[in-house]
Write a structure and sequence with these properties.
The structure holds 3 protein chains of 3 kinds.
Chain A lengths: L5 H25 L17 H16 L2 E7 L8 H18 L7 E4 L2 H18 L10 E3 L4 H14 L2 E9 L4 H10 L3 E6 L2 H10 L2 E3 L7 H4 L4 H29 L4
Parallel strand pairs in A: 1-2, 1-4, 2-3, 4-5, 5-6
Chain B lengths: L1 H25 L3 H38 L5 H21 L4 H36 L3 H17 L8 H12 L1 H25 L9
Chain C lengths: L3 E2 L6 E2 L40 H7 L14 H16 L14 H22 L12 H11 L6 E7 L5 H17 L3 E6 L4 H16 L10 E5 L3 H10 L1 H4 L26 E6 L2 H11 L8 E5 L4 H9 L7 E4 H12 L6 H36 L5
Parallel strand pairs in C: 3-4, 3-6, 4-5, 6-7, 7-8
Antiparallel strand pairs in C: 1-2
Classes of the chains: A alpha/beta, B mainly alpha, C alpha/beta.
């Protein structure tokens, strides 16, 4: 087989993206509760991190305490943008529930655009809930611009604020271990996920509830952010199994000498 | 009514911009290419401006902390003073001048290197605690792999056995890469799904 | 004295009370309606009955009687009210996070671990013996060096400083040797970075080389520092699309593209070599994906941190290669030093590195065994029922 040209690869990529989009759009109506044709009910496996997140949010409301969310340092124009968007959707859901309580979430981030969006998300959520007077711009802060300055700038929020849990959702590097360790020292529940492999490795040993692999991207579906999130999770599963099949087929063809 | 029109404009702008960038990557057409370049340049400018906004936010928050005399405000004073000095040195003599270099070499590098040192302590203790918290076979494999990687790197005479270096090499070339590839594939799918949700207007982080 | 019956709830009350102690209604006897005067025989109200005559109504207008609302409460009741008031005033406060006095087990373990590492590093520095040999070079190291030593005179070389200051000690040994090789061969390094600290990081690298080499390399005669590219991967894409438009001026605001080594450089493929110094897999991938595809015959080399090596290796081992040379970690730098036989930059660190790694491995092994025994003991003492 001749090597694929750049144009061929572009076409394959475009087909992949279109297929993915179609799957998401196709699955979304089937997952609505009020639709006649729904997919089987037990479609999400248990992830204890999200179960404990729900518990932590409820505890925060009941005890009148805060929840600390740190969104990482993924710029929206960089590779960490997707995990940053996931962090923002988690923030939206958390702020929605905490708007019922005394205190809202406090958010830290390591990027300017992320900081602006975190303030915006909190403000919009409070507006929708009718408690816009609770919004304080200082509830969304930039803690540092380099990885270690971001980590060390986040530590005071863990130690000084009366928070019950620390949720780390976004793009982190190995410096995530410092944040997770500080949270554990402060007696907080630590739920952490990153798209970076080094961060996942260090969070496995330092966080109470690490999210490994792509579990972070399931946050929207597990926090009931909408049918589209669950639909995209299902679409990911379909594509994943397709890729597994293609890889296995490729191995077989290579072994028997066709490729 | 105005709210609905505003929402459609916001969503429409996001979708069109996203489509131009995405299509420009897969399809090479001059019109799409030039639109893509313009949009990317705008994004870069916005990223640089957001950096400045982040800095201003940092200053405002710490200034407020000092004015309100909150606990730990002495660190905010230190931050503001060091920020001012570094900014002045950089503005007056340039970012690559001797003054900037001195601050970088004698303040930033030692601090960040020390933090990395603390990270080493944290990770050692974390690895030990993992076996206590989750005494499973996977934790044991994790620990053994960590030991092989560490000891396969060094050349201390009484531990310099060739099989450790070979084992290290095999672990980094085969299971680590295989596992990492699998995880990365999942991360890529998640990334694509997140991006597509924004492109089709299902996720609207920019909305009012 | 006889008790007074409440007209509202019917219960008996002490005679001196003005308010019923059961239902809080006033205990004043209701007024009997007055006998109404006879209806006038003529006029508009002649046929109506039960009308209050205006004269009697006017005569009866008085200031309303103030009814007492004083509630009789006992002292214990007052104390309970005060308590409730205080509780609601202060609100629910979370338990304070005052740390327990003294050193906890966790803190003690941290201190001991840190001291063990510090002792190991100190011993490695003080008692550095020839037995801590530098690692030998392999084919990868020789290939990397080959790309540099075959450069022509005044060849423009792009150097990207993409690592955080914390990783300086790991990457600087190999970086210093590479810079020395480039500058002593007359190549023209062009420094650039997509991290905010990279601009100064590059300058620091030159400064370190000047100290080690004993001569002073200066800009713009020996090298140039273009500066910072904002926007991460997007910025890199833009840099690839137009290097001159991205950097019309260099980091200190001076014109650069008219300088002799850069006059013919209009795109990244016009550089003779591109070397990326990075601590992160994402940055390495950004360079490979955004820049590598357009480099054509220009080799792309990487000097990476050990944590990024496993994921950059596949790009090095691929066919065709997407990374043409790779040095990883302090061990890679030490092997490069062995191969080039140049200045000693890894040698002073190698002994300390070795000792600290051995101590770290020992701590993990010992601590792991203790953890396993502790976990087994805990599950045994809990018993099979788990109680």
């Amino acid at each position: 087989m001749d090597a694929l040209t750049q144009a061929d690869l572009g076409l394959i990529g475009l087909i992949f993206v279109l297929l993915f989009t179609l799957l998401i759009i196709a699955f979304a109506p089937l997952l609505r509760e009020d639709s006649g044709r729904t997919l089987p009910k037990r479609r999400l496996r248990d992830i204890s991190a999200f179960t404990k997140l729900r518990g932590a949010i409820n505890n925060s409301v009941e005890a009148g305490q805060r929840l600390h969310l740190t969104l990482g340092r993924g710029a929206l124009v960089g590779m960490g943008s997707a995990s940053a968007l996931v962090g923002l959707s988690v923030l939206g859901r958390v702020a929605q529930t905490l708007s019922l309580g005394e205190k809202g979430p406090i958010t830290t981030s390591g990027d300017g655009t992320l900081m602006i969006l975190s303030q915006d998300t909190t403000h919009n959520t409070y507006s929708t809930a009718g408690v816009v007077e609770k919004y304080d711009p200082s509830d969304g802060q930039l803690s540092g611009l380099t990885p270690f300055s971001y980590a060390s700038g986040t530590l005071p929020f863990i130690y000084d604020q009366d928070s019950t849990a620390t949720v780390m959702a976004g793009h982190f590097g190995a410096e995530a271990a410092l944040i997770a360790d500080a949270s554990e020292n402060a007696g907080n529940l630590t739920i952490a996920g990153s798209d970076n492999l080094s961060a996942q490795a260090v969070l496995l040993v330092t966080a109470n509830e690490p999210l490994i692999g792509e579990e972070l991207y399931a946050a929207g579906a597990y926090t009931q952010a909408g049918d589209m999130h669950t639909a995209s999770l299902l679409a990911q599963d379909v594509i994943r199994w397709t890729l597994v099949g293609v890889i296995l087929l490729g191995i077989l063809l290579k072994l028997i000498g066709i490729l | 009514m105005i709210g609905i029109i505003k929402r459609y404009i916001l969503v429409g702008t996001a979708i069109i911009a996203g489509m131009v960038i995405l299509l420009g990557y897969f399809i090479k057409l001059p019109a799409i290419d030039s639109a893509r370049t313009i949009l990317l340049n705008w994004a870069i400018i916005l990223a640089a401006v957001a950096l400045i906004i982040g800095l201003v936010n940092l200053l405002v928050v710490h200034s407020r902390k000092i004015i309100d005399k909150k606990s730990g405000n002495v660190y905010s004073v230190i931050l503001l003073v060091s920020f001012t000095i570094t900014l002045l040195v950089g503005l007056i003599s340039g970012p690559t001048s001797q003054g900037s270099l001195w601050i970088f070499n004698n303040v930033q590098v030692p601090i960040e290197t020390s933090l990395l040192g603390i990270l080493a302590v944290v990770l050692i203790l974390g690895a030990v605690r993992l076996l206590y918290r989750q005494p499973t076979s996977f934790s044991l494999i994790f620990m053994i792999a960590a030991l092989v990687i560490l000891l396969g790197t060094v050349s201390v005479p009484w531990i310099n056995v060739s099989w450790l270096s070979s084992a290290r090499s095999w672990i980094t070339r085969v299971p680590v890469v295989a596992g990492a590839r699998g995880i990365l594939m999942g991360v890529v799918l998640g990334t694509v799904a997140t991006g597509l949700r924004v492109l089709i207007g299902a996720d609207r982080p920019y909305e009012d | 004295m006889s008790e007074v019956q409440c007209s509202h709830c019917g219960k008996e009350n002490p005679p001196d009370l003005e308010i019923c102690q059961h239902c809080q209604s006033p205990l004043v006897a209701p007024q009997q309606p007055e006998e109404l005067a006879d209806v006038p025989p003529e006029g508009p109200l002649s046929e109506l009955t039960g009308i209050i005559p205006i004269e009697s109504a006017v005569n009866e207008i008085t200031i309303p009687k103030p009814y007492s609302v004083k509630v009789r409460v006992s002292e214990s009741q007052r104390a309970n009210v005060r308590l409730l008031e205080n509780l609601t005033k202060e609100g629910v406060r979370p338990p304070s996070r005052e740390r327990a006095p003294g050193v906890t087990i966790q803190q003690a373990l941290r201190i001991l671990t840190a001291m063990a590492l510090i002792l190991a590093i100190s011993w490695g520095i003080i008692f550095d013996t020839p037995s801590f040999q530098l690692p030998s070079a392999d084919a990868r190291i020789s290939e990397f060096s080959e790309h540099i030593i075959t450069l022509p005179e005044s060849a423009p070389v792009l150097l990207a400083f993409e690592y955080e200051p914390g990783f300086s000690s790991e990457l600087e040994p190999s970086m210093t040797i590479i810079l020395d090789q480039l500058l002593s061969r007359g190549a023209y390094p062009v420094l650039v970075s997509t991290t905010p600290t990279g601009v100064v990081q590059g300058q620091r690298a030159i400064g370190l080389l000047n100290q080690k080499a004993g001569r002073v390399y200066e800009a713009p005669s020996d090298y140039i520092n273009l500066g910072y590219i904002p926007g991460g991967a997007t910025g890199l894409n833009s840099f690839n699309a137009g290097i001159r438009s991205t950097f019309p001026l260099e980091a200190n605001g001076n014109q650069v593209w008219a300088l002799p080594p850069l006059q013919n450089v209009n795109s990244l493929s016009d550089f003779n070599l591109v070397i990326v110094f990075t601590d992160s897999t994402e940055t390495a991938r950004s360079w490979i994906e955004q820049v590598g595809t357009d480099l054509q015959d220009t080799p792309l080399l990487m000097v990476a941190s050990a944590q990024a090596e496993p994921l950059i290796n596949p790009y090095y081992n691929s066919d065709p290669r997407q990374v043409d040379g790779l040095i990883a970690g302090l061990a890679g730098g030490a092997a490069y030093e062995t191969y080039t036989g140049g200045m000693e930059v890894s040698r002073p660190l190698w002994g300390a590195f070795n000792m600290s790694v051995v101590v770290a491995a020992g701590l993990i092994l010992f601590g792991g065994l203790v953890s396993v025994i502790g976990a087994a003991y805990k599950s045994e003492s809990n018993g099979p029922s788990g109680h």
